[in-house]
Amino acid sequence: MRILTDSTADIPEGLCKTHQIETIPMYLHMNGKSYRDGKDINPAAIFENVEKTGVFPTTSAPSPADFIQRFMKEDPIIYRFLAN
User: Fold this and answer.
1) Where residue 76 sits, what CATH number does that domain have?
2) How far apart are CA 4 and CA 21, in angstroms?
3) Residues of the domain holding 26
4) Please, which residues bridge with residue 27 across strands?
5) Are 45 and 57 in contact, with CB atoms under 8 Å apart?
6) Digit-coded pLDDT (tens) for 4-40
């Protein structure tokens, strides 16, 4: 059984490793570039950019291909997601 979530869960890396939780990164868009949350950019860099520019990043969900890559495996999955 695998546990899968997206980066909005903000689960610390150590906890993910201990419990083998896979995280699909959300996308952050800043300064004309896209970053994978927790992979290509960290919170400190985001806050620093906001402090410098006064502009907050926008976000978007993982792509369908990101989900397909993670869900197309044989073992069962528990998926935890952000709901409004």
Assistant:
1) 3.40.50.10170
2) 6
3) 2-80
4) 36, 60
5) no
6) 999 988 888 899 999 999 999 999 999 999 999 989 9
